[in-house]
Amino acid sequence: MDVHRRPIPSSGEHRETQKLKTTTTTDSKSQSQALLPLYLTNALFFGVFFSVAYFLLHRWREKIRTATPLHAVSPAETAAIVSLVASAVYLLGFFGVASRASLDELSDDEIILKEDSRALGPCPAALADSSCLLPNKIQNQFPLSPKAIHSVTKEPQVDSPVPISSFSDEDEEIVQAVVSGSIPSYSLESRLGDTRRATAIRHEVVQRLTSRSLSGLPLEGFNYDSILGQCCEMPIGFVQIPVGVAGPLLLDGKEYTVPMATTEGCLVASTNRGCKAIHVSGGASSVLLRDGMTRAPVVRLPSAQRAAQLKFFLEDPLNFDSLAVVFNKYCSLLLCFSNAF
To answer: Which residues of 253-274 are buried (b: 16+ CB within 10 A; e: fewer)?
Structure first.
């Protein structure tokens, strides 16, 4: 066992440490002492504001009844108006300006950097024994609490042991290649030419990457060729959803039976009542106005206020056209519609 002697700090370092501790303790005490008067001050100004407002409304109501000019102000009303203005200025300054101080200290890039430096979840491309730690530079700039660090660095909990699937040697090599990242998961169907086999391999890859069992996700009994390039990419299985039926729906002179796959209670029943009401009233007619798909650019902004400013900026047709020219330089398929904003 190695024994290391801790270096004895010099007298200057010792004094600096004691001074730092004393300063920190003093600051914390002053903050705790100033916390109670702050609440009392806010409560006082709230009480003054509402009581004075009630007093002025009551007096002005009496003036209106007696036909007294409103500009004729008594000394008591003058004091009440001054108190109302003073309390309103204090409350607006405390809840308006002070709440924005922390946001104004950071620039847009720093806000985005702070959002990107949040604690990550389980790494999808790492094994179970790896830890998703933040870089030291980001940790120093935005330190985490000990509880947050523990939640990030602790080992993932495994719900149940991952079953060892029986694969051939060739499939086992493909699984290891996908886990290591040398073969992309999305290219399994095109490489193997078998959608069922590609789904089984991807199913096993997800189990090994997450160290969690997917035994509750069915794999057999589904035609994966029917969804290839249609409605779901990179499948790992399927789920069973109850299917109800509503109708008949009388639409454009024809009756339709409407199947609905859902787990929401009363949804099929209410839809069926609507179909019955439409049928009794003579049916419904439909008109197809437009059939297509729109694409729009995505702009990332640090706050909702900046997003609103961009929205107002794009309401000007000249600004919209200039920004559309910039977006069209990078994507020839990009179509910008003014109603998208």
So the answer is: eeeeeeebeeeeeeebeebbee
- Whole-angstrom distance, CA of residue 259 vs CA of residue 333: 36
Tokens of 66: 């007696």
Judging by beta carbons within 10 Å of its beta carbon (0-12, 13-18, 19+), is residue 197 exposed, middle or buried? middle
pLDDT at 308: 92
Q: How far apart are CA 145 and CA 141, in angstroms?
A: 13
Q: Which residues contact 147 (CB under 8 A, 6 or more apart)?
A: none
Q: First-to-last CA distance in the chain?
A: 68
Cβ atoms of 22 and 30 within 8 Å: the answer is no
Residues 6+ apart with CB under 8 A from 47: none
Verify cis geometry, omega within 30 degrees of 0, for the bond prior to 248: yes
Report DSSP state, residue 220: S
Contact 209, 126 (CB under 8 A): yes
Q: Indicate the angle between helix axes 195-210 and 169-180, nearest 10 degrees.
A: 50
d(CA 156, CA 50): 54
Q: 284 has which bridge partners?
A: 251
Based on C-alpha coordinates, what's the Rg of the chain? 34
Least confident of 8-17, 237-246, 287-296: 8-17
d(Cα 141, Cα 232) in Å, to the nearest integer? 41
* Sequence-ordered strand ranges (E) for the chain: 243-251, 254-261
Residue type, 251: L
Mean pLDDT within 85-114: 69
The verdict on pTM exceeding 0.70 is no
CA–CA separation, 144 vs 140, rounded Å? Answer: 9
